[in-house]
Amino acid sequence: MARYGGVPLSPAARDVLRSLPISLDGRVFETTYDAVHQSFVPACRRANISDLRFHDLRHEATSRFFERGFNPMQVATITGHKTLQMLKRYTHLKAEDLADMMETPQFQRPS
């Protein structure tokens, strides 16, 4: 895994980015917030999803990293959160998922 622009990327993500044309201004995607918003809102409407903002996906991804076993420092590095307090605001873990994690071998007491 390598860091590009301060974001750690998997080999698959690096391959995708390398396959894209290089922009003269250095941006990876030639789009704006408004363009994303104008596509996201109708897509949610078509999928019958209400009360979802594009930014909510950052909260969801942050929680999923924790569910996959990443520690707070690793998640903060990936998401770009500068403080653990801000990271905590983005994390929404479910009690039942944490209970399930405690049943995995890595959380069991050595015999």
Explain what the structure shows:
- The protein is mainly α and 111 residues long.
- It has helices spanning 11-19, 33-46, 56-67, 72-79, 84-90, 95-102, and strands spanning 2-4, 7-9.
- A two-stranded antiparallel sheet has the order 1-2.
- A hairpin with a 2-residue loop joins strand 1 and strand 2.
- The mean pLDDT is 84.
Précis, in short:
The protein has helices at residues 11-19, 33-46, 56-67, 72-79, 84-90, 95-102; strands at 2-4, 7-9. With 111 residues, it is mainly alpha-helical.
Order of SSEs? EEHHHHHH
The amount of beta strand, in percent, is 5-15%
Low-confidence stretches: none
Describe the sheet with the most strands: 2 strands, antiparallel
Mean pLDDT: 84
Structural class: mainly alpha
Q: Helix tally?
A: 6
Instruction: Give the CA-based shape.
Output: extended
Care to count the β-strands?
Answer: 2
Residue share in helix? 40-55%
What distance separates the N and C termini?
Answer: 34 Å
Rg from C-alpha positions? Answer: 18 Å
Strand order of the largest sheet: 1-2
